[in-house]
Amino acid sequence: MKKKIICLVLFTVTASQSFGSIIFHPEKKGHLFQTFSLFTEEGQTAMYHQDASRYWGEIGSRITLFDVDSIWGKPQFVIDAGIQASMRNQGKEFNTDTIDVRIGISGLFTIDSNTRLMVSVSHLSGHALEDIPDKDLVPLNVGDETIKFRLIRDHEKKFRYGGSLKYVFGHEGVIKKLNADQFLEWLPLSERNSIHESTPYVALGFEENGFDKYALTSHVQTGLYWGSHMGETHDEILRLSLGAYTGMDPRQKYSHYKHTKKTFGYLGLAYEY
């Protein structure tokens, strides 16, 4: 997969040089293509307390490569990488059951001032650690390669809505290759666009994916955030969130091989930059 990512980056650079001028160190646009409506999201660092003993943690990073301002959509190209961990509190220590790793490259296209298109290619791998109760999952492999098309639109700094269509072109085991998601965010007081004032929000998302058969995953989240989510100028975002999730197990090895489903509520913090 590393070779595929490297080849894709080289192809992107070559194509960009052929069709338009390249701008390095541009103003970041990644926040304009993100949503709070899905439980996991590229570029997000978070810690969620799910119940008395279980936690979910993520560390995400986004590297902005360059803009190409002379072709359609004036795309910005970015690399995303992230680690997600499912943890249990065992009194004086935390035990980690699973770790999932994601890396990908995206083209962020601006259709107009409120409408945007993201095209991304990513690799997702799932890992089970020795502390996991289900030892039979440890030797099994999880590795999915996915291409995703996301259309996203903002309306009057109060609403963000859209959806994604995903095709899994490389995978382990039986899987539904065509997946989708839809999302809606509502900012009842409009965005404050400030790190000093909070913006309340409500976010709702749905995903359709599965393995032997399709399953519906739903997620709702509400809370406050500080920073710029819909503003053109990039800023860090700190989010205090309360949410509920029901659907496919977000732990990749469990969902891939045991086809388990999870329902839980959570409270936590998320950070994006």
Instruction: Please give the order of strands in the largest beta sheet.
Output: 2-3-4-5-6-7-8-9-10-11-12-13
Number of strands: 13
**Share of residues in helices:** under 10%
Question: What is the number of helical segments per DSSP (H or I, 4+ residues)?
Answer: 2
Largest sheet: 12 strands, antiparallel, barrel
Instruction: Please trace the helix and strand order, writing H or E for each element.
Output: HEEEEEEEEEEEEHE
Describe the 3D structure.
- There is one protein chain.
- By secondary structure, this protein is mainly beta.
- The protein is 9% helix and 58% strand.
- The chain contains two helices and 13 strands.
- The chain has helices at residues 2-19, 252-258, and strands at 22-24, 45-49, 54-68, 76-89, 94-110, 115-128, 142-155, 159-170, 178-186, 194-210, 214-227, 237-248, 261-272.
- A twelve-stranded antiparallel β-barrel has the order 2-3-4-5-6-7-8-9-10-11-12-13.
- Strand 4 (76-89) and strand 5 (94-110) form a beta hairpin.
- The two termini are 26 Å apart.
Q: What is the secondary structure topology, with strand pairs?
A:
Blueprint: H1 2-19, E1 22-24, E2 45-49, E3 54-68, E4 76-89, E5 94-110, E6 115-128, E7 142-155, E8 159-170, E9 178-186, E10 194-210, E11 214-227, E12 237-248, H2 252-258, E13 261-272
Antiparallel strand pairs: 1-3, 2-3, 2-13, 3-4, 4-5, 5-6, 6-7, 7-8, 8-9, 9-10, 10-11, 11-12, 12-13
